[in-house]
Write a structure and sequence with these properties.
single chain, 118 residues, two-stranded antiparallel sheet, mainly alpha, 2 domains, 3% strand, globular
Length: 118
């Protein structure tokens, strides 16, 4: 199921497809399966929009960002999932996906702040 998640007005699916195509187009011999991992990240993010906390008009994250606490919220969650990795349910790759997703949201906040300054 495709979702309408956007970063700077661009659909997340579009961004991920472009990144995947760029990696694939270059036809490099990636040592770390980057193209496959990007696809897994995309699937993880899509799934977060299908969870129970995403069915209302606003997610809690939207409200936290609107209140001006977005960057700290994202960094705090990155730290939480980094510290939890390997402890809760073993080495759970979903914790790593959450770190990446919160980093992407932090980048979105950074980009919006930069756009506001220009």
């Amino acid at each position: 199921m495709e979702v309408d998640a956007k970063i700077n007005g661009i659909l997340l699916n579009t961004l991920m497809e472009q990144a995947y195509k760029e990696l694939d187009k270059e036809n490099k011999n990636y040592k770390f399966n980057e193209a496959r991992i990007l696809e897994s990240i995309k699937q993880h993010i899509n799934n977060t929009y299908n969870k129970h906390y995403a069915h209302g008009k606003y997610q809690a994250t939207d409200m936290i960002l609107d209140a001006g606490h977005g960057e700290s919220f994202c960094i705090g969650n990155i730290m939480k999932y980094a510290m939890r990795y390997g402890k809760k349910n073993g080495s759970n790759v979903n914790d790593l996906f959450k770190i990446i997703h919160y980093a992407m949201i932090a980048i979105h906040i950074y980009d919006e702040e930069q756009d506001g300054r220009n």
